[in-house]
Amino acid sequence: MEFLALVLALAAIVLVLGGTLRTGVPPMPTSSGVRACMFDLAKDVAPATVFELGAGWGGLATALARRWPEAKVVAVEVSPLPWAVCRLRQALFGPANLEVRFADALKTDLRAADLCVCFLCPPAMAKLAPYLRDALAPGTYVLSNAFALPGWVPLREARVADIHRTAVYLYRRDAA
Predict the structure, then answer these.
(1) What distance in Å separates the CA atoms of residue 15 and residue 4, rounded to the nearest whole number?
(2) What whole-number distance in Å separates Cα of residue 165 and Cα of residue 137?
């Protein structure tokens, strides 16, 4: 029994580490304080379709689906174990307007998005910025936790009163 527990623990570590090495982004939860700041910054946004790019364990995706119950929320995750946890969480606890996809954010069709949400590290944000410029329709909002989109000018930004003074950014894809 101990051997089985050890094998399962090692398999979990390998799955998370493999996804992190592949994407350059570890699965990190978003604190409730940062979520509250994100929702406050986007209080005037009324999306029909929300994409969370890099949904990790699914905490923020679930909160997004509860914040906008009338919207379809699509959680996109490419790391196997966090995706499986996110999918299981959604299957067991909902909400019904949350869809979980095993996919690469940089290969996801975002034409239906009214709002994209991300919490990715700077190298991933550098890859995401030009992709979003090409993939999003003009007028689409982007809400980012902690890291700015290089080359984009935020509509609004805020700092959370936490130990890290976490930044939150709201952008809007321009018409140009």
Answers:
(1) 16
(2) 31
At 27, the pLDDT band (50, 70, 90 cuts) reads low
Domains and CATH numbers, the chain: 2-172 (3.40.50.150)
Q: What separation in angstroms does the CA of 141 have from each of 1, 86, 161, 162, 165?
A: 50, 24, 24, 25, 23
pTM of the model: 0.87
Query: What angle do helix axes 32-41 and 59-67 make, rounded to 10 degrees?
Result: 40
Confidence of residue 41 (pLDDT cuts 50, 70, 90): very high
Q: In angstroms, rounded to a whole number, what is the distance separating the alpha carbons of residues 31 and 37?
A: 10
Tell me if residue 66 falls in helix, strand or coil: helix
